[in-house]
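Lecture notes, continued. The same structure-token format from the folding unit now serves as the input rather than the output. Read the line below as a description of shape only.
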């Protein structure tokens, strides 16, 4: 008696799909992972960097303990004076991850007093040099990074530096798909313009511990 061979096809399809998934995962690992949203991308990079810091500090297991960290905004790799709302959101999400992991994250934008503005509300955070509470940041490490905009993705390279030596304690790379939402956060970068922040003078210094 001959049995129809169609019953074997689902198994073959499953096997083929599994192979494709493995190949896709290997390709992503080789070129830097692709994460669909900024919060997911930040969490993925935070975990990667944390594991490297734990290894560098010879701590038993992640997350690292006793590390004070200042977080700065990623900049355009082709113009280090250029940033955008997407990069600022990435910095916020990275600060969120490190705080939740137990790092001592310093808020370098804290003003010297609460600013009350009619119609705008009560504000404490500022980027105005004359309103900053401190102009020098005391931290053991500082997070910095760059981004690159391609036709399909925005690729972030984030690193944590030891302030006393400028050594890289940990570094991670991730790509965020260039969706319509992401494009709206790119601002001038999406239209190919640059130099929007040229000429900005440093307002916060880093005091080495």
């Amino acid at each position: 008696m001959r049995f129809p061979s169609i019953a074997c096809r689902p198994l073959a399809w499953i096997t083929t799909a599994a192979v494709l998934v493995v190949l896709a995962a290997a390709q992503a690992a080789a070129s830097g992972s692709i994460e669909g949203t900024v919060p997911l991308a930040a969490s993925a990079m935070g975990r990667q960097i944390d594991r490297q810091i734990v290894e560098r500090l010879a701590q038993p297991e992640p997350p690292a303990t006793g590390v004070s960290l200042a977080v700065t905004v990623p900049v355009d790799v082709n113009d280090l004076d250029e940033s955008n709302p997407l990069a600022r959101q990435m910095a916020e999400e990275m600060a969120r991850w490190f705080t939740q992991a137990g790092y001592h994250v310093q808020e370098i934008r804290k003003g010297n007093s609460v600013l009350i503005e009619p119609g705008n509300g009560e504000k404490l955070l500022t980027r105005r040099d004359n309103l900053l509470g401190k102009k020098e940041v005391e931290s053991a490490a500082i997070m910095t990074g760059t981004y690159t905009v391609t036709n399909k993705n925005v690729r972030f390279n984030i690193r944590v530096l030891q302030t006393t030596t400028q050594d890289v304690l940990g570094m991670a790379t991730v790509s965020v798909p260039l969706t319509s939402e992401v494009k709206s956060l790119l601002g001038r970068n999406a239209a190919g313009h640059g130099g929007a922040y040229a000429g900005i003078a440093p307002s916060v210094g880093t005091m080495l511990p």
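Point for the exam: The first strand starts at residue 33 and ends at 34.
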